[in-house]
């Protein structure tokens, strides 16, 4: 019996003729099917609790004191920011310790390249799975926003791919960093000096115009800032301004640079 026969046996396996990286996606999906319960809080319940807290708690104070933010109720303003922030959490979580574990602890990536898959397939499968998972979470989040009456435009449906792109713009460079680490302590620094500042200052909770000019200029460099701006514009009926396409291009740039360095990192760790 040949290796090709073994690798395609069973109705649940991808068939011959599919791109080989689909097998990596299938592996990630299979693993997730066994562990999905642990991600419900981060992916669904936590954003829902944020929306309730912001609308009933902080939102009532902001709306009473100033009539909202940028002409809209505070919950309408903060909800799309929380959507992008959720993508930040998932993208970094799935591209940091999980990648380091696949390279150093569980060494699942070494097992993968012992099959017909190569390091390129492993990377594409990894990022494709993140895009699929984040799209599913974003769909649920947008649905919850609809229940709360926070979708002011039919363009809000485009916030789902916008959120997934935001996740990829963050997870790709995070993967590149993870491929160059040898212990978990260095990844903890990424969370403290990368994730936390983005979460606090990228415009999730307040307009960037409230920041000092020099700090606003720095914050504009962050990929999450573009994700927040794009999701907010699509859900608040602000229209498709040309500047939004610049945000899309900027996130694609982050993804492309991260992909390149992720690829070289995988090649160095798995092949050379």
UniProtKB/TrEMBL annotation:
Keywords: Membrane, Transmembrane, Transmembrane helix. It is found in: Membrane. Its main location: membrane. It is a multi-pass membrane protein. Residues 38-269 form the ABC transmembrane type-2 domain. This is Unannotated protein. The keyword Disulfide bond does not apply. PANTHER family: NODULATION PROTEIN J (PTHR43229:SF2). One of its GO terms (cellular component) is ATP-binding cassette (ABC) transporter complex. InterPro entries: ABC2_TM, ABC2_TM_bact-type, ABC_2_transport, Nod_factor_ABC_transporter. It holds the Pfam family ABC2_membrane. GO terms for molecular function: ABC-type transporter activity. Coiled coil: none annotated. The keyword Transmembrane helix applies. The chain crosses the membrane at residues 40-62, 82-106, 127-149, 155-177, 189-208, 244-263.
């Amino acid at each position: 019996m040949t290796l090709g026969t073994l690798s395609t046996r069973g109705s649940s396996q991808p068939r011959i003729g599919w791109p080989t990286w689909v097998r990596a996606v299938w592996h990630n999906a299979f693993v997730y099917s066994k562990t999905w319960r642990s991600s419900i809080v981060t992916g669904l319940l936590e954003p829902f609790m944020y929306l309730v807290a912001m609308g009933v708690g902080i939102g009532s104070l902001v709306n009473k004191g100033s009539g909202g933010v940028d002409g809209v109720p505070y919950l309408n303003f903060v909800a799309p920011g929380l959507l992008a922030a959720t993508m930040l959490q998932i993208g970094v979580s799935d591209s940091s310790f999980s990648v380091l574990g696949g390279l150093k602890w569980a060494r699942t990536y070494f097992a993968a390249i012992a099959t017909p898959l190569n390091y390129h397939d492993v990377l594409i499968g990894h990022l494709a799975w993140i895009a699929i998972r984040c799209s599913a979470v974003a769909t649920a989040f947008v649905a919850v926003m609809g229940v709360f009456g926070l979708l002011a435009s039919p363009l809000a449906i485009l916030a789902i791919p916008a959120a997934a792109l935001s996740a990829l713009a963050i997870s790709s460079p995070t993967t590149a960093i993870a491929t160059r680490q040898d212990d978990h302590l260095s990844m903890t620094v990424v969370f403290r000096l990368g994730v936390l500042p983005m979460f606090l200052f990228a415009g999730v909770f307040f307009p960037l115009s409230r920041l000092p000019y020099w700090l606003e200029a720095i914050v504009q460099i962050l990929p999450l800032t573009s994700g927040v701006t794009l999701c907010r514009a699509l859900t608040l009926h602000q229209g498709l301004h040309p500047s939004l396409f610049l945000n899309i291009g900027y996130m694609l740039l982050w993804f492309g640079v991260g992909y390149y360095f992720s690829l070289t990192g995988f090649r160095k760790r798995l092949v050379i």
